[in-house]
């Protein structure tokens, strides 16, 4: 008899992306998203976050976030930063933040064991690793009508072919189109 697979939480990615598939400008800047963030809506972000139990983000995303002059946005939720380096001591890191180096699956298994049911993965490299390891259940892309030509990509060659079902879509006068996908099992592809 084979052992049952160890449980992992539901995993969602939720990103703003340019028409040509970038999540940040080449220098990491997010200026291309700024006009759309001022359009009087949060595009469902707070409703999404209300379902999230824990956040797993890349070090580059963490560093950008820490550079913003805003209160820590994740309240009491555990946040795991994937990094090979210690986090800087200043400004002080919230006590809810920890670090992890290595594969996502063991991290997700340990989060599930601690009662986490829904994880938000963030950062291009991290989302690609989660897609590579077929750990992403839901993908929400808010596509803004901007071509960057270069920047930090969302997708890449490490992401294997996979099949997705459109769960919903919505567009706004700002030109942003949000696409919500759920992963389809391989045998649902045709
Ligand atoms: N448009 C959006 O919705 C959106 C969302 C999120 C982020 N962003 C932007 O995207 C940019 C960041 O994305 P990114 O793809 O450049 O980087 P990222 O995924 O945020 O972070 C990559 C870094 O995380 C660490 N890392 C990744 N996987 C790891 C693992 N398995 N184990 C240990 N460490 C690991 C490595 O850092 P070290 O080895 O150096 O520690 C790596 O260089 C930022 O500019 C951010 O603002 C945009």
Structural class: alpha/beta
Sum up the overall morphology in one term.
globular
What molecules are bound to this protein? Answer: NADP nicotinamide-adenine-dinucleotide phosphate
Biggest sheet character: 8 strands, mixed
Task: Encode the helix/strand succession as letters.
Answer: EEHHEHEEHEHEEEE
Low-confidence stretches: none
What does this entry look like structurally?
The chain has 190 residues and is of the alpha/beta class. It has one domain: Dihydrofolate Reductase, subunit A. 19% of the residues lie in helices and 28% in strands. An 8-stranded mixed beta sheet has the order 5-4-3-6-1-7-10-9. A hairpin with a 5-residue loop joins strand 9 and strand 10. It binds NADP nicotinamide-adenine-dinucleotide phosphate (NAP).
Concise synopsis of the structure shown:
This protein has 190 residues and is an alpha/beta fold.
What secondary-structure arrangement, pairings included, does this model have?
Blueprint: E1 10-18, E2 22-24, H1 34-37, H2 45-49, E3 54-58, H3 59-67, E4 79-82, E5 97-100, H4 104-113, E6 118-122, H5 124-132, E7 138-144, E8 152-153, E9 164-171, E10 177-183
Parallel strand pairs: 1-6, 1-7, 3-4, 3-6, 4-5
Antiparallel strand pairs: 2-8, 7-10, 9-10
The protein binds NADP nicotinamide-adenine-dinucleotide phosphate (NAP).
């Amino acid at each position: 008899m084979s052992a049952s697979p160890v449980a992992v939480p539901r995993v969602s990615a939720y990103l703003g992306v340019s028409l040509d598939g970038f999540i940040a400008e080449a220098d990491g800047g997010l200026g291309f998203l700024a006009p759309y963030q001022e359009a009087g809506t949060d595009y469902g972000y707070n409703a999404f976050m209300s379902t999230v139990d824990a956040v797993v983000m890349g070090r580059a995303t963490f560093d950008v976030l820490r550079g913003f002059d805003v209160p820590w946005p994740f309240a009491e939720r555990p946040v795991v930063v994937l990094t090979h380096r210690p986090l800087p001591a200043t400004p002080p890191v919230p006590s809810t933040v920890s670090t992890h180096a290595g594969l996502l699956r063991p991290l997700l298994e340990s989060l599930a064991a601690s009662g986490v049911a829904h994880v938000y993965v963030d950062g291009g490299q991290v989302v690609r690793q989660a897609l590579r390891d077929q750990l992403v259940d839901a993908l929400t892309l808010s596509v803004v009508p901007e071509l960057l030509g270069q920047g930090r990509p969302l997708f890449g060659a490490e992401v294997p072919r996979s099949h997705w079902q459109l769960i919903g879509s919505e567009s706004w006068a700002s030109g942003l189109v949000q696409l919500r996908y759920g992963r389809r099992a391989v045998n649902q592809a045709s």
